[in-house]
């Protein structure tokens, strides 16, 4: 990002020569160019960016690239067709993973709500034709915690094989904030900044965790449990749900009876039900709990990795 054309040209040629002479790499002429963002938009990794006027200054307006939107639309239709021909819990979970993955990737675009609203509108007829015969279109009634966290209860969605599908058109924009390198756990100043930036909710829960006592656990375990909870901002490492102190379960990634320890890197912060799912041996109960919790395919992959470390069968 340069303030004038001459500076941009200098950087362009400097980077091009460095890549060629030092690393023996050629750049793509189609993808590497100097663009005036005040007059034209630039595409990068599925996003478009343009510097539009706002009052007396310019601000970045970002959107989803048109070609990317068409690819998403085509992919969504394929997944809807799979659901139509095989309306199983597993395929519903895969569709939810697809939607949540898109939302997590594109939620930093400033105009992403408009992009996905259009996409949902264009796919409306396809969803109706493919899903109406195999499911119900309704307001979620007592949906799982993951659904509540990301989508709330305001809009209708399809219920397939006992699972509510994540609505493609509802996406929360995530503000991209600047960061400072002074925030680090390796300096006194950095640790102070980390402490002051903790939300009030997390601070309160950390105090409760510090006051708790588990006689069968080591001091190392108790300290690292608090550190892990703080680093993860109080969220379950699989579902992303915020956990209050009384609901925090701390799982040993490598179980102690298999050689694991109480060190920070071997602990995982989990919600109670997910922790139970990792150690559950009854497959029928496990599949029921997966539906109740609204576990997506990506979440189930993580759970199965944990189960493998515990020398348990994976859940399919």
UniProtKB/TrEMBL annotation:
Domain of life: Bacteria
CDD domains on file: HNHc (cd00085)
Domain HNH nuclease: 225-276
Protein name per the record: HNH nuclease domain-containing protein
């Amino acid at each position: 990002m340069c303030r004038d054309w001459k500076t941009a040209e200098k950087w362009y040629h400097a980077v091009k020569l460095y890549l060629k002479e030092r690393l023996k790499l050629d750049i793509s002429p189609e993808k590497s160019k100097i663009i005036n963002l005040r007059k034209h938009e630039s595409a990068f990794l599925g996003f478009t960016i343009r510097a539009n006027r706002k009052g007396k200054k310019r601000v970045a307006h970002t959107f989803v690239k048109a070609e990317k939107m068409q690819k998403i639309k085509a992919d969504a239709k394929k997944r809807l067709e799979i659901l139509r021909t095989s309306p199983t819990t597993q395929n519903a979970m895969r569709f939810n993973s697809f939607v949540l993955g898109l939302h997590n990737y594109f939620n930093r675009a400033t105009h992403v709500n408009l992009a996905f609203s259009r996409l949902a509108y264009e796919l409306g007829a396809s969803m109706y034709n493919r899903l109406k015969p195999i499911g119900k279109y309704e307001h979620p009634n007592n949906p799982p915690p993951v659904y509540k966290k990301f989508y709330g209860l305001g809009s209708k969605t399809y219920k397939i094989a006992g699972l509510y599908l994540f609505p493609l058109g509802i996406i929360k924009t995530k503000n991209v904030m600047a960061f400072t390198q002074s925030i680090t756990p390796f300096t006194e100043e950095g640790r102070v900044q980390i402490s002051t930036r903790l939300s009030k909710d997390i601070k309160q829960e950390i105090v409760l965790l510090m006051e708790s006592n588990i006689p069968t656990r080591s001091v190392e375990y108790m300290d690292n449990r608090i550190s892990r909870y703080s680093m993860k901002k109080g969220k379950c490492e699989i579902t992303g749900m915020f956990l209050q102190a009384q609901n925090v379960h701390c799982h040993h990634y490598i179980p102690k009876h298999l050689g694991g320890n109480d060190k920070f890197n071997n602990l995982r912060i989990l919600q109670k039900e997910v922790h139970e799912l990792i150690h559950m041996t009854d497959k029928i109960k496990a599949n029921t709990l997966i539906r109740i919790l609204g576990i997506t395919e990506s979440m189930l992959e993580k759970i199965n990795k944990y189960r493998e470390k515990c020398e348990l069968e994976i859940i399919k």
